[in-house]
Amino acid sequence: MFTTTGSRGLYKAPLSKGLLLVLNGLTVMLLLLPQYQELFVYNLQAVSQQHQVWRLLCGRLVCLDLKNSFCSSLLIYNFKIFERRFGTRKFASFLFGTWCLSALTDYLLAQAFQFLFDFEVEELPAGLLAPVFSLFVPFYLSIPRMPVTQVLGHITITNKSLVYIVGLQLLTSSPFMWLLALSGLISGGLYHSNVLRLQKLLFVPSWVSRIGRYTLEPLFSSSQPTNETPLGMGATLDIQRQQRMDLLDQQLLLAQYNEARRNARHQPQAGLLQWTRLFPSLRHRGQNRPPVQPHPPAQSQPATQAPLSDNSPVAEEQVARLVEMGFSRIDALEALRASNHDLNMAINFLLQH
């Protein structure tokens, strides 16, 4: 949605889809039935003094504020890339681990705030908010930052800027939302860095994962999209024409890059690569293209050392990993060919383009 992770919707993200449907459905029901909202209030005083431990479960799952529910849903939809990349079980383990850690961190931060400022925090915003904030830790550390445009010539807008803006909107929606945000970031950092082997202590067991696979996944799984969004949808003819020219420019770059890589294998050059020859401007590309030198049969590689084909096991594994991250199979194959089966370079190219 915000990051360039492909227009695959909620395909291969059943947990994210289930959270969006169930939690938002409960929020709407509680708005229509306000007499039951008291059961879902996240009251720390009731938990600590009246021992109403059940409020930790009810008050930390369903949002009672529609704006908080909307912003957290946008973030969950965007963070579905982690479920595709690491699998549903690991994604559920991260949410479960940070949910447990943030419950303790909420109480400790509230006690510290009371000790420092002599003010007792009675209620906190309800909902699955701290685990959502904890997902900003892997989002910051593992998602590459790609510039998209510039504002006023100095402020750079990246593929991650809108996600941080939505997080900032959620942060400023309630007076004590900062406490949940800080608790989520602390718990996310602890779980992501595996401090005290937390990932071995707080995780979703395999038998629970199997039960969810056979009972809940058929309900919340999404079918594979048949095609991608058409190029230039909603744009004027001039913008569509410019987009197609940019696409042609990228295809020419890929073709010349492949040709230069093939030539570099047979004719290694001393010193640094001349990148201006590999990537010239479009108008001079035909003039600066390096000539293809014929290779005698004696210097050709034997059949046993031929380049990897698209159907080889290694290539299929790389394609499957890119498809799980949300890219289409056609884009994954083109990126792997362009990067000579370098997975990291292919990921960077797909995220940038």
Q: Your description of this structure?
A:
59% of the residues lie in helices and 4% in strands. Strand 3 and strand 4 form a beta hairpin. The longest helix is centred in the N-terminal third of the chain and has 30 residues. With 353 residues, the chain is mainly alpha-helical. The N terminus is likely disordered. The protein is built from 19 helices and 4 strands. Helix 1 runs antiparallel to helix 4, helix 6 crosses helix 10 and helix 17 crosses helix 18.
Helix content: 55-70%
Total strands: the figure is: 4
Shape: elongated
Average of pLDDT? 79
- How far apart lie the N and C ends? 15 Å
Instruction: List low-pLDDT spans.
Output: 1-7, 228-235, 268-292, 297-313
Largest sheet, spatial ordering of strands: 1-2
Oligomer: single chain
Strand content: under 5%
SS content category:
mainly alpha
Q: Sheet with the most strands? A: 2 strands, antiparallel
Rg computed from alpha carbons, rounded to a whole number of angstroms:
25 Å
Please provide the ordered H/E string of secondary-structure elements.
Answer: HEHHHHHEHHEEHHHHHHHHHHH
